[in-house]
Structure formats: C-alpha cells, structure tokens
Amino acid sequence: MTEEQEATADVFPAEEKAQPAEVSAEVLELRQVSVATVRGQKVRLESSTARTIRAEEAELESAAVLRLEAGEAEVEEAGIGVLRAERAELEECNAWLVAAQEVVLEKSNAWAVCGGVVQVEGGRSLLVIGRHLDGAVQPVLDLRGAIALGLAAGLSGALVLLLRQLLRRK
C-alpha cells in the first residue's frame, strides 16, 4: 500500500464483489456501502450502513449505524442504535440511546439521552438525563404522565391477577 492509500481509504462497492465485513485505516471515507465494523482515527460515512463504528472522530450523513463509539461524533440525517462519545452532535436524526459528556440534539428524536451537558433544539426524547439541560427539552413522558402510567399499569396488573384467580376457582 502506498502512503496515500494508508492515509485515506475509499471503499466503493462493486456489483460483483461482496461487501467488506471489516474496514480499518487511519482515515476512512465510506460511501454507499454496507460494512460490519469500521475502525479508524477519522471516519466519514455517507449513505451507508454499519453495524459498529469505533473512531476518534466520526462524521455520518444519511447513514444507519447500530453502534457508534467515538471521541467526537457529528451526525446528520441518520439512524443510530447506541451512540457513546465524549461529544455528540445530532441533526435531524433518530437514535435509541445517546450517551456523551456533551450532547447537542437539533430536530432529532431519541428514546434516551444521557450526558453532562444536554442541549436540545426541537425533536423529542422519552428520557433525558443530564447535569445541565439547555433548550426546549420536551420529554414524551413527564412527571404527571409517569405517575398516570404507573397507576394504570399497577391497576391493570392487579385486575388481571384478580380475574385469573376468579377463573381458576370455577
């Protein structure tokens, strides 16, 4: 491999070749591919899918990733399962879990967000945990909703158990 190839690895799918299972290099730029694992110092993923990405710097655009671990993650219009980073910035994304020291969500939805500093501008989250929250944080479930859900679940469970006992006696 030449020095240039080691510094930057471009992966473009060929119709007759199988997709790579693992790609690693210091700097990676992947477009329109599907890979299992990506490892690198700096990773850019565009219009692609990956099961796992581990990088110091990750930049995703129109991508789908199951698990992203990075020092700094910048994500735009993507779907992410679990994102763990020192700093994460998501714009128009959907995520299941986002955990970082600093989280910025712009028009993004997440099931759970956990961080030291959490900044939310648009979008919705079911659970937001942070030492410092900025922006219009609109959790799907607030305190009243959580109490109502807990009471409804408890009463429903008790009713099911009561009906089950009554049906056994007959």
Q: What distance separates the N and C termini?
A: 79 Å
Content-based structural category = alpha/beta
The total domain count is: 2
Order of helices and strands: HEEEEEEEEEH
- The number of helical segments is 2
Uncertain runs: 1-16
Give the mean pLDDT: 86
Number of strands: 9
Gross morphology is elongated
**Computed CA radius of gyration, to the nearest angstrom:** 21 Å
Topology:
Elements: H1 3-7, E1 9-11, E2 22-31, E3 34-46, E4 49-61, E5 64-76, E6 79-91, E7 94-106, E8 109-121, E9 125-135, H2 143-169
Protein architecture, described:
- There is one protein chain.
- The chain has 170 residues and is α/β, with parallel strands linked by helices.
- It folds into 2 domains: 3-139, no CATH class; 141-170.
- The protein contains 2 helices and 9 strands, in the order H-E-E-E-E-E-E-E-E-E-H.
- A 9-stranded parallel beta sheet has the order 1-2-3-4-5-6-7-8-9.
- The chain starts with a helix and ends with a helix.
- Mean pLDDT is 86; it is low at 1-16.
Based on the model shown, name its key terms.
about 170 residues; alpha/beta; nine-stranded parallel sheet; 2 helices; 9 strands; about 60% strand; elongated; disordered N terminus
Task: Summarize the structure in short.
The protein is an alpha/beta fold.
